[in-house]
Design a protein that fits this description.
By secondary structure, the protein is an alpha/beta fold. It folds into 2 domains: about 1-145 and about 290-340, Medium-chain alcohol dehydrogenases, catalytic domain (Quinone Oxidoreductase, Chain A, domain 1), CATH 3.90.180; about 155-285, Rossmann fold, CATH 3.40.50. The protein contains 12 helices and 15 strands. Helix 1 (about 40-45) packs across helix 12 (about 320-330), helix 5 (about 145-155) crosses helix 6 and helix 5 crosses helix 11. The longest helix is centred in the middle third of the chain and has 13 residues, at about 145-155. The site of one zinc ion has 9 residues, from helix 2.
């Protein structure tokens, strides 16, 4: 079965992956749609000597082999988690499944960007979800990235009515703004630097979209929040400066979430006197658990917010290299690869 993998730095190669022997309770999917994530771009830029796995983890697929007994049937459309918390370790038992010590032991093989994908029985049982009939297969492919966002909102103790500042106008920033809308944000402010992305944010997800190269974000946030600052700040840009700005714009007692991954040894200067007296919370989020993906499907299905503007380009398999370039060059928002 063919899959797209990272080759030499900057190259995507199409590889013939071995078909693993599926056990009776395992599931096999035919890939339908797979989103391209910044992680895929990073993996391709880094390059790999050996193609052990395919790229892609934001997969909608169709079941082509199901166990004789159980909830799954051939022909069903599903989304699947890229990894599975064990439910047994210290972190799982403390309600922090994305810190699971065994998080990467069970996963779809070879990955999302492959014609056929093997789902171990336990992943099919605890980390796979049927796509509701009235939700498109393409939008369902947002369940994984939206699940990551929902986890970030949870970690930020986001509540309906909260003002939400999202720093970053890329696909994850837009998803955070959209999720804020879905979850009843009092107001949503998106800060970015790219004109066309800010226009999308303003049209679909944000009350206010701010081009930080033109406008003083501090003043805008102060003006929108009675000078308090935002209740919740999600930093969806990979930079120390963006994190520092986020901290400067949260209200006393508010929550800042370092959502985007940053390079190793990224440092900021923190005024700890302010942490003490202004009593704000600094949180971090990475990854998603099956429960967040299930919640994401609910939000996508609810139609309260139109998530479709986040997917801005479609490439047919095997043109994965072009899709990666599209995302790397920030031409639009999210690209997806379609299989037929
Ligand atoms: Zn992703
Ligand atoms: Zn665990």
């Amino acid at each position: 079965m063919k899959g797209a993998a990272a080759g030499q730095s900057g190259q995507v190669i199409i590889v013939d992956f071995p078909e693993p022997a599926a056990k009776e309770d395992d599931v096999i999917l035919e890939a339908l749609v797979c989103g391209i994530c910044a992680t895929d771009v990073k993996l391709v830029q880094k390059g790999a000597k050996e193609a052990k796995y395919a790229l892609g983890h934001e997969l909608s697929g169709k079941i082509v082999k199901a166990p004789a007994k159980g909830q799954w049937k051939v022909g069903q459309h599903v989304v699947v988690a890229p990894y599975l918390p064990c439910d047994q370790c210290y972190y799982c038992k403390h309600g922090q499944p994305t810190l699971c010590k065994n998080l990467y032991e069970i996963y779809p093989f070879p990955g999302g960007l492959a014609e056929r994908v093997y789902i171990p029985a336990e992943l099919a049982r605890r980390g796979m979800f049927a796509i509701p009939d009235d939700l498109s297969i393409e939008l369902a492919a947002l369940a994984e990235p939206l699940g990551c966002v929902i986890k970030g909102m949870e970690d930020s103790h986001f509540q309906a009515g909260d003002s939400l500042l999202v720093i970053g106008d890329g696909p994850m920033g837009q998803l955070a703004a959209a999720a804020g809308r879905s979850l009843g944000a009092g107001q949503v402010i998106v800060a970015g630097i790219t004109d066309h992305r800010l226009r999308t944010a303003k049209q679909y997800y944000a009350d206010t979209a701010v081009d930080v190269t033109q406008t003083n974000l501090h003043q805008v946030v102060a003006g929108c929040t009675d000078k308090r600052g935002a209740d919740v700040v999600i930093v969806a840009v990979s930079s120390a400066e963006a994190i520092s700005n986020g901290i400067a714009m949260v209200r006393p007692g508010g929550r800042v979430n370092i959502f985007a991954g940053v390079p190793e040894d990224t440092q900021i200067t923190l005024d700890v006197r302010k942490v003490h007296y202004q009593q704000y919370f600094l949180t971090g989020s990475s990854g998603t658990a099956p429960a967040h993906m299930n919640k994401a499907l609910e939000l996508l299905q609810s139609k309260m917010v139109d998530y479709s503007a986040i997917i801005s380009a479609r490439y047919s398999f095997p043109k994965v290299g072009e899709a990666i370039t599209y995302v790397k060059d920030r031409v639009g928002l999210k690209a997806v690869v379609t299989f037929s």
